[in-house]
Design goal:
Layout lengths: L4 H11 L4 E7 L2 E7 L2 H11 L16 E7 L10 E4 L7 E8 L2 E6 L5 E4 L3 E6 L5 H17 L4 E4 L1 E5 L2 E7 L5 H10 L3 E4 L2 E4 L6 E4 L5 E2 L1 H6 L1 H4 L4 H8 L3 H6 L4 E2 L2 H5 L7 E13 L5 E5 L9 H4 L8 H6 L1 H12 L4 E7 L2 H14 L7 E2 L11
Parallel strand pairs: 2-3, 3-8, 11-17, 17-19, 18-20
Antiparallel strand pairs: 1-2, 4-5, 5-6, 6-7, 7-8, 9-13, 10-11, 10-12, 13-14, 14-17, 15-16, 18-19
Length: 379
């Protein structure tokens, strides 16, 4: 009989002490991290510092989860696990998931990290010091799991906010959700989240971002004026020579630290959802259009919208994508939404979203389906 996950975690803790503590509070959730080296602890603390709740803010001070990040050779897991691939199951192998009594063991293929998922404690084991971003992804999965247990749903979306009213930005992989969010910040928006948005039930339409810096590809860095200034002359020259198609498909993402680029006070993790858009546009010529649609009309893209936090949350695998989409539909049924099609135009979209959320109207550069009336964003 396989060992219980808590016993496995206990044995690993005995063999690999993690004496460096990091505690942080984000949007009312407290997470306790214990690092195996001082360097890992410092990097984690520095990453999450901009997202910390203000002193005195209401918070759940009891730790939602404890995570140990241990620098060691990854564990070899015996047996055959469930293989998970990227891009709707057609891409490369991302993880191998092993079910054990009381939890799961997840082998991350690209990073080589092994994650032990218990009910109250997780362990990340591997060459963590060399790759802090995959470690952050696991920590954020724990953060989302804590909120999922409190009844929030997970939407695959970026989001920004103007004056406490947020707009969620969805789309298929590569549609430019993070890029759109950064262009909205040029129009005065606050940053809410990069890739996952936690959505509460109606009528409050409360949403919470996930504490992660936007990650953008070289094409965004080359074409976004603020990010372009941070490129070296060599990077500008090499990227500028690439054909547009190759530039768009180049996968070499880098973090954009919001405080470094935009200054303090531009983060808004908890907020209220006023509207959403789905990016169904393409690189090319012609005008872009915005059509009013209900959230239920996005069912063909359900796999891109409600990915959630599987494999960390076993309840999602049991529920299935249709159940998760139905859950999200019930929460966004009265939140107005737009489908954006035609030519990709990030500056124009940012101006239009600001006008919609702040003023309740779209400028003429976006053409609304004449048979439909523009819905007012929720105030």
């Amino acid at each position: 009989m396989a060992a219980h996950i808590d016993d496995l975690i206990g044995r690993i803790r005995e063999r690999h002490p993690a004496p460096w503590p990091v505690r942080f509070h984000v949007a009312g959730v407290t997470l306790d991290i214990f690092a195996g080296t001082e360097k890992i602890a410092e990097e984690i603390a520095a990453y999450y510092l901009p997202f910390e709740d203000e002193p005195g803010a209401s918070a759940v001070r009891e730790s939602a989860l404890t995570i140990s990040v241990i620098e060691a050779e990854p564990e070899r897991i015996r047996g055959t696990g469930r293989i998970r691939r990227g891009r709707a199951g057609a891409g490369r192998v991302k993880e191998i998931v092993h079910e054990v009594p009381g939890g799961r063991i997840i082998e991350k293929v690209a990073s080589g990290l092994t994650v032990f998922v218990g009910s109250r404690e997780w362990i990340v084991l591997g060459r963590a010091a060399e790759q802090i971003n995959p470690v952050v992804n696991v920590i954020n999965a724990a953060y989302m799991t804590a909120w999922r247990r409190q009844g929030l749903s997970v939407l695959h979306a970026a989001a920004v906010s103007w004056g406490g009213s947020a707009v969620a930005i969805m789309g298929a992989p590569g549609a430019g959700k993070s890029t759109a969010a950064l262009w909205c910040m040029e129009e005065g928006a606050e940053y809410v989240t990069n890739d996952r948005l936690l959505v509460g039930p109606l009528p409050e339409a409360k949403v919470l971002g996930v504490p992660k810096h936007p990650r953008v590809n070289p094409g965004t860095r080359l074409t976004h004026p603020r990010l372009f200034m941070n490129l070296t002359p060599e990077e500008r020259n090499s990227l500028g020579r690439l054909p547009l198609k190759d530039l768009v498909e180049l996968e070499e993402k880098q973090d954009v630290v919001i405080e470094s680029c935009y200054g303090p006070g531009r983060l808004k993790i908890p907020t209220r959802l006023a509207g959403w858009v789905f990016l169904d546009w393409r690189v090319g010529t012609g005008a872009w259009t915005a059509s009013v649609i209900p959230f239920a009309a996005l069912r063909p893209w359900a796999g891109d919208i409600v990915r959630g936090i599987d494999p960390y949350d076993s309840s999602e695998a049991e529920a299935g994508p249709d159940d998760l989409f139905n859950e999200m539909t019930s929460r966004l049924s009265r939140v107005p939404g737009l489908r954006i099609s035609g030519k990709a135009d990030f500056p124009a979209l940012a101006r239009a979203l600001r006008a919609w959320i702040v003023d309740g109207e779209l400028p003429a550069i976006g053409v609304i389906n004449p048979a439909e009336e523009l819905p007012r964003a929720l105030g």
